[in-house]
Design brief:
Structural class: mainly alpha
Order of helices and strands: HHH
Shape: rod-shaped
Distance between the termini: 77 Å
Radius of gyration: 29 Å
Helix content: 40-55%
Length: 78
């Protein structure tokens, strides 16, 4: 396009923006309580080792132990 001096200049247009919404749900894989109990009570892993293995906090591991106790998993279930 010509400007008022007769020179060509570029026309800059804004890019077309598409607003799309993608639902994102950050969901960690579930911890298998039987495997957790086996690693802790049979293989003798510490809470710190379990937390590192499952990428959880030690408090989260403690909560899993409470679930195990509540569900009544015994050595025979593991």
């Amino acid at each position: 396009m010509l400007n008022h001096n007769g020179a060509y200049h570029a026309i800059i247009k804004e890019p077309i923006l598409l607003d799309m919404v993608y639902p994102v749900r950050w969901q960690e894989p579930r911890v298998d309580l039987r495997e957790l109990a086996k690693l802790r009570f049979i293989d003798g892993w510490s809470r710190r080792q379990l937390a590192s293995h499952y990428s959880r906090t030690e408090d989260a591991i403690q909560n899993y132990f409470q679930k195990i106790k509540k569900k009544g998993l015994s050595n025979f279930d593991i």
